[in-house]
């Protein structure tokens, strides 16, 4: 599709037309043009030890207050109510990989803008960040949106470089926003895009640019996840589509009874997609990058563990199986990570791809030579826009299948394995899911986030991300908020332990799987059953109507986090304590309160200290 075709009316199928009629739900706090806001406490960094560094890098936007949007019936003494809405102009762009539901963010923002003032204008930047730099816009109207509501893809506006980082790029963005007299700029994307949004907001404030920059958590990988962001738009849909495909593969495997399927799943550095799909489809094995990194498993140790699983199944007369591999696994393996870092450094020094092998260190060169040629070629491909390796282009599933086959042949020759010859089939499930029709959950979630963006702009906030918590419950119980993006930023530590030194610039880092979470415990508990029993599940296609339409990610429902709700509970308790301890209360009550608060303070200090203990390794047996 040419850039000129972006935003053109689509020819919709019957199902697409029916989906376009679906009206997403809104929680009560977003219904109607009135904006009711409660300003909470000032925020800090997600890693308190990095707070000073983040504050230095973002002197104008660090430490801003957490903002809650209130239901009409909520009684809050210091609530701000905004009823007058002069006309405003807002820009919006896609930045990052396509993720199902992205179009609904634009629809939600458009609907909220028109509800506040029919003269409001929403301009979409055609071609993502490059469209922003070139001032290439498309005015969003009812007609433009009509064939993109509840649809997959990013083809309403498209995307390109996905980067607003260099001085030239930032200056171009400032020029565009000033020339177009934008009151707000909505950036739809993942960790990298929202990190850039934070920097852009800081720069806009510094240069007295009136445009308020707002970030929206939209990424299929689900790795923009923290206290404030429970999941991202698109993650639910991608996992459901992939789980359907995996379930089909599982049935094919057990039907043929002679192949091992190595399935790599798109999802970036973290393993959230593979993790969720494992819970939904019950494959025989899943290799999580977080487990590998924690236990520092080498490539051959991973290979041997898979082979041990193959032998265990062969002992039961089973010569088939399904193994899930996250896209980012390759970077979690210590020796592969070191090799990739060395290659990245050479790329950063503008060394041509063909010359990289000859400039590797002796150790890295030996590792590079050990790898199959197809992997070697893929490792030297040019970097992504965030200067990382092109993980989607590295066939980790084929590498593991190759190594497992070699090891099984070796065990056969040695006589330790007496089963049938090992045979594998490899798949990469990547783009198949990211253009899918979004689930009802993603449609609702994205539409709500679009509304929140407009509320944030109306409140005059800059450098915030639109967020929703309590997502596990019905839409009418969702809690909508605006969170300073700097509150989600940190600086990587060069070493582990007390002597760790922060290095690099503050950014939002991809959130790994929490190996202490209840959802991970569920997977560990079922690991042996998954390995030895063909306990496969076939979820089928996404359900848009009838039973199954309201299903949400298993990890989301198990973990059941509601950070903003917990803050409200804490605030309620603090208010009760203040009420009890008014001047004039008895000395006994005062002493009891001091003693209790001292104990609480000591406990929180201990809990806030860095934890260096390592978690046990996830085993196949």
UniProtKB/TrEMBL annotation:
Biological pathway: Carbohydrate degradation; glycolysis; D-glyceraldehyde 3-phosphate and glycerone phosphate from D-glucose: step 3/4
Source taxon at top rank: Eukaryota
Family matches, as Gene3D superfamilies: 3.40.50.450, Phosphofructokinase domain, Phosphofructokinase, domain 3
GO molecular function: 6-phosphofructokinase activity; ATP binding; diphosphate-fructose-6-phosphate 1-phosphotransferase activity; metal ion binding
GO terms under cellular component: cytosol
NCBIfam families for the chain: PFKA_PPi, PRK07085.1
HAMAP family the UniProt entry points to: Phosphofructokinase_II_Long
Binding partners and assembly: Tetramer of two alpha (regulatory) and two beta (catalytic) chains.
Biological role stated in the UniProt entry: Regulatory subunit of pyrophosphate--fructose 6-phosphate 1-phosphotransferase.
Protein name per Swiss-Prot or TrEMBL: Pyrophosphate--fructose 6-phosphate 1-phosphotransferase subunit alpha
């Amino acid at each position: 599709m040419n850039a000129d075709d972006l935003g053109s009316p689509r020819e919709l199928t019957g199902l697409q037309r029916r989906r376009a009629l679906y009206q997403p739900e809104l929680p009560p706090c977003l219904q109607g043009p009135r904006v009711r806001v409660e300003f909470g406490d000032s925020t800090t960094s997600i890693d308190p030890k990095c707070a000073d560094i983040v504050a230095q890098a973002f002197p104008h936007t660090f430490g801003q207050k957490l903002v809650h949007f209130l239901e009409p019936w909520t009684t809050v003494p210091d609530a701000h109510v905004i009823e007058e809405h002069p006309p405003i102009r807002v820009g919006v762009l896609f930045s990052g990989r396509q993720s199902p539901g992205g179009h609904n963010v634009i629809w939600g923002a458009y609907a909220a803008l028109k509800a506040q003032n029919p003269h409001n204008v929403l301009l979409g930047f055609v071609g993502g960040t490059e469209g922003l730099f070139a001032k290439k816009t498309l005015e969003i109207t009812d007609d433009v949106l009509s064939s993109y509501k509840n649809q997959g893809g990013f083809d309403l506006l498209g995307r390109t470089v996905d980067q607003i980082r260099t001085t030239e790029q930032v200056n171009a963005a400032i020029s565009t926003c000033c020339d177009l007299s934008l009151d707000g700029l909505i950036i739809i994307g993942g960790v990298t895009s929202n990190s850039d949004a934070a920097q852009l907001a800081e720069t806009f404030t510094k240069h007295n640019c009136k445009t308020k920059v707002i970030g929206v958590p939209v990424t299929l990988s689900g790795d923009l996840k923290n206290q404030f962001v429970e999941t991202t738009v698109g993650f639910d849909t991608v996992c459901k589509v992939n789980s359907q495909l995996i379930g089909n593969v599982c049935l094919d495997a057990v039907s043929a009874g002679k192949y091992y399927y190595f399935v790599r799943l798109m999802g970036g550095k973290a393993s959230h997609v593979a993790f969720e799909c494992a819970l939904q489809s019950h494959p025989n094995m899943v290799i999580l990058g977080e487990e590998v990194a924690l236990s520092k498993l080498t490539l051959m140790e991973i290979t041997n563990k898979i082979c041990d699983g193959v032998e265990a199944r062969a002992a039961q007369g089973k010569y088939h199986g399904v193994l899930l591999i996250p896209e980012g696994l390759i970077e979690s393996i210590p020796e592969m990570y070191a090799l990739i870092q060395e290659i990245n450094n050479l790329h950063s020094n503008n060394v041509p791809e063909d010359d990289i092998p000859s400039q590797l260190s002796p150790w890295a060169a030996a590792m590079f030579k050990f790898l199959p040629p197809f992997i070697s070629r893929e490792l030297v491909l040019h970097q992504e826009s965030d200067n990382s390796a092109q993980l989607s282009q590295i066939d980790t599933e084929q590498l593991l299948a190759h190594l497992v086959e070699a090891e099984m042949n070796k065990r056969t020759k040695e006589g330790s394995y007496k089963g049938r010859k090992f045979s594998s089939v490899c798949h990469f499930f990547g783009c198949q899911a990211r253009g899918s029709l979004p689930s009802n959950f993603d449609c609702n979630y994205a539409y709500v986030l679009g509304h929140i963006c407009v509320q944030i702009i109306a409140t005059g906030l800059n450098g915030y991300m639109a967020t929703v918590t309590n997502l596990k419950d019905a839409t009418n119980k969702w809690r909508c908020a605006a969170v300073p993006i700097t509150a989600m930023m940190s600086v990587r530590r060069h070493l582990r332990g007390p002597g760790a030194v922060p290095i690099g610039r503050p950014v939002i880092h991809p959130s790994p799987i929490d190996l202490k979470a209840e959802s991970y415990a569920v997977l560990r508990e079922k690991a042996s059953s998954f390995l030895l029993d063909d306990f496969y599940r076939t979820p089928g296609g996404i359900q848009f109507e009838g039973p199954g339409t309201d299903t949400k990610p298993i990890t989301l429902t198990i973990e059941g986090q509601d950070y903003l709700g917990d803050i409200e509970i804490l605030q309620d308790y603090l208010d009760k304590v203040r009420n009890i301890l008014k001047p004039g209360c008895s000395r006994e009550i005062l002493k009891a309160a001091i003693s209790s608060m001292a104990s609480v303070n000591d406990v929180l200090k201990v809990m806030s200290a860095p934890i260096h203990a390592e978690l046990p390794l996830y085993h196949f047996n």
